[in-house]
Design a protein that fits this description.
about 260 residues; alpha/beta; 9 helices; globular
Length: about 260
């Protein structure tokens, strides 16, 4: 039996790329289950709720309980509902994130002058007009959050700009950084993950493809970390980075070597 009690698995770039499962990913998940590890999927995708990944992964032989899935969208919704109840949130983000926030009873406003909180995220319709309104919403000391810092998102044939790129534009015009990022690698994200797992952080393994989110989350929270080379990070980027994983795996399929 493994020394790990639990595993936090990234999704995009670790289990899937775009809509397709990565080779051996299902084998890696089954190896963790056979070793008795509790499992939590944690995606920084701010456009998806917990139900999505069960529907996405089931056809590929990976069973997912929605209660064992977190996304930067669900973490952000839970955090804002708990810390800013009855405050109007101005959202720079897409319709799916808007629906997730509303389902968590977060009050939204489309009027930048009425904003009491600002949340920045991925928005395919981001424009000059959006940025101008965001500048108005961010006037004064209104609390400013981001769902996730991912500058790019991997897709089937490359990458597209992500939340981090939009947040950078908002930061530039407002002249300040977000007060907090709510998805990985934040302390908010780590606390949400450990609340779901109810495991000892020192006996928890984090597996993901991004050094600045997945590996940084584990390092900051005292967890063991494993970088997979199936997503954003390659060996050249790893060699040049300040963030160091405990283990480097060619893919999730190789996680069995750690158990």
């Amino acid at each position: 039996m493994t020394d790990y009690e639990a595993a936090i698995l990234d999704v995009d770039g670790t289990i899937v790329r775009g809509d397709d499962p990565l080779p051996g990913a299902a084998d890696g998940v089954r190896a963790l289950e056979a070793a008795g590890c509790s499992r939590l999927l944690f995606s920084n995708n701010p456009t998806r709720g917990s139900d999505h990944y069960g529907e996405k992964l089931a056809p590929h032989g990976i069973d997912v309980d929605p209660n064992t899935v977190l996304t930067s969208a669900t973490v952000s919704a839970e955090y804002l509902a708990a810390t800013h109840p009855d405050e109007r949130v101005y959202l720079v983000g897409g319709e799916r994130l808007e629906a997730i926030l509303e389902a968590a009873a977060v009050e939204l406003t489309t009027d930048p002058d009425a904003a009491e909180v600002v949340l920045g995220s991925f928005d395919k319709n981001f424009s000059f007009g959006t940025l101008w309104e965001a500048l108005r919403a961010l006037e004064g000391d209104v609390p400013f959050y981001g769902t996730d810092p991912d500058a790019t998102i991997p897709i089937d044939d490359g990458e597209i700009p992500g939340s981090g790129a939009i947040l950078a534009a908002m930061e530039a015009v407002a002249g300040r950084e977000p007060d907090a990022i709510l998805g990985k690698p934040s302390s908010v994200a780590a606390a949400a993950a450990m609340d779901r797992l109810d495991a000892d952080p020192t006996k928890t393994l984090v597996v993901g493809d991004r050094l600045d989110t997945d590996i940084a989350l584990g390092n900051r929270a005292g967890m063991e970390t494993a970088l997979v080379l199936t997503g954003i990070t390659d060996r050249a980027a790893l060699a040049a980075a300040d963030v160091e994983p405990d283990h480097v795996l060619e893919s999730l399929a190789a996680v069995e070597t750690l158990l």
